[in-house]
Amino acid sequence: MSNEFINFCKYCGIKRKLTTSFTPQQNGVCERKNRTIVNMARSMLHSQDLHYMFWVDACRTSVYILNRSPTKSLEGITPYEACYERKPNVDNFRFFGCLAYAHILDEKIRKIDPKIQACILWVIVKILKHVDFTIQK
């Protein structure tokens, strides 16, 4: 590590802790949570036979699910509840990679064309208030 980074950490009061590579015994809570997220994402991708290019969205969906699931560290409430002081709405949960239908705007179609397109639902992003779809070929 550079001296500049070491001095920056000292200046900001950041305590650095170094660990040996490939020693899970030294992994902290964050590393274990990251492993949980990646394992969930891997399971979602493989269960739906989706390409690895969707790994970011699978990770995002994993975090979305974990933030709405009870944890021991918060004594049975969800991280969402701890942050917003209300129960999360899980009515929008769907299977990762399930069949969905997207509405096609009237300006994009001719008079007798179908108004929906079959798609694969691959991530729900509540924060951005939209749902991402991939067109099924």
Report on the structure:
The structure is a single chain. The protein is α+β, with helices and mostly antiparallel strands and 137 residues long. It has one domain (3-135). It contains four helices and three strands. It has helices at residues 3-12, 29-47, 55-66, 79-84, and strands at residues 99-103, 116-125, 130-135. It has a three-stranded antiparallel sheet. The radius of gyration is 21 Å and the shape is elongated. The model is unreliable at 125-130 (pLDDT under 50).
Write the layout of secondary structure elements.
Layout: H1 3-12, H2 29-47, H3 55-66, H4 79-84, E1 99-103, E2 116-125, E3 130-135
Antiparallel strand pairs: 1-2, 2-3
Helix pairs in contact: 2-3
Q: What structural class should be given to the helix and strand makeup? A: alpha+beta
**C-alpha end-to-end distance:** 48 Å
Q: How do the SSEs run, as a string of H and E?
A: HHHHEEE
Helix content: 25-40%
- What is the tally of helical segments? 4
Please tell me how large the radius of gyration is: 21 Å
Biggest sheet strand order reads: 1-2-3
Low-confidence stretches: 125-130
Question: What is the arithmetic mean of pLDDT?
Answer: 79
